[in-house]
């Protein structure tokens, strides 16, 4: 094998490795000539996350100078008005400093197409705009289409892209489509969406976004487990008592009522983010970090997930009532603007799942998520069994909990290990819980890129390991569908006061197993 072939192979491998640091100066991952078209460009996600992430990528020098950014929307805007809209949102939400020079270069490639999804002429104009970018800016026919739109719009946008000739990759030019969650609202609708999308796009050019997989700390879970010798030997049913995965938010649904009502907490984040976290926590070591090898291991875990026999005892739902978010008094869910006053949508969900494998036999995985909880925190806590024997008087270990490794996904990203230590002084051997802490903020000087920066760049590079496959999406719906069906027979979820840690039902659920939720 020639030296250059070896180098190319090594580069390809490194590029597809999610543990590789994208800031690595030896091998910066810079996108080649290309452009992105955003559908739903005026929406919340685009304004707060996508446009700023594109700017941040440009600012970090990871986009080509010729990059094209096209917005497609109903508003009757001139190109300059659209540019002003992008600038305003970038300035308000960018992570890296706002620099006129970066902005000028990005702004030169910004285009706007006015139209609705059912209008073939608008798509003909889009096709002209894209060709013009190819000619004038040298984007060379390489374009990504970001569907930041409700799932019901995927089929029509996909068909229009096919009809105007934008959907198919050619030998020397790629076309890719990025699909935002939710991918369906149950297994059947997800399959139907997949059928429609795959009629138009080649499966290898479809990138389903689960932005949790783009978070540095989620990738760090793989580093923690597989780059170290000390965790894997105890990462199993011999030592682990149970696992708690928590995604708590302090915000309510304000501004997103239309999307959220009828969907609820479990479809919104358990079906995707939390089940992906479970899969990464429970999976075996992949042969490599290629997309195929990673997904093979995640798929095995999702296939091995078993629902509790008694759904009433091992699931819980809640809906926030009026209360406090920090020092602000806030309204209950049913009083939020745009919410049906009789809505039975849950804003809190907790479920127990088991992973039926040799490694995890008898170890429950408790998943919980909710809006308007005590604080914003996402964490994975691996809680260990007690030491088999404590050679101390029982009074000396009164305050000793179980050992735990807590991966703090956000905020305050890092890892905490909880263990018992001797209380200093005194004559008896008194033991109490203490923490050992790794914090990203203290150990590294650079701030972590936003998940969307990483994921958008991966799409432009055609690098798929951090995107869930159709099979993973289907398996996740297979897990959730029976729970949703059971809940649909129950009526109103149990109310909980805003600013607290959820409904009493959730505490009772764990108490039945002789356990309790961690206080993050
Ligand atoms: C989204 C959900 O996927 O994740 C939202 O639809 C939620 O309801 C959001 O607020 C939370 O994301 P993050 O990155 O702030 O944890």
UniProtKB/TrEMBL annotation:
Positions of the Glucose-6-phosphate dehydrogenase C-terminal domain: 222-518
Binding site for NADP(+): 74, 181
One BP term from GO: pentose-phosphate shunt, oxidative branch
InterPro entries to which the protein is assigned, alphabetical: G6P_DH (IPR001282), G6P_DH_AS (IPR019796), G6P_DH_C (IPR022675), G6P_DH_NAD-bd (IPR022674), NAD(P)-bd_dom_sf (IPR036291)
Pfam families linked to this entry: G6PD_C (PF02781), G6PD_N (PF00479)
HAMAP family: G6PD (MF_00966)
Protein's recorded name: Glucose-6-phosphate 1-dehydrogenase
Organism expressing this protein natively: Bifidobacterium eulemuris
Originating gene: zwf
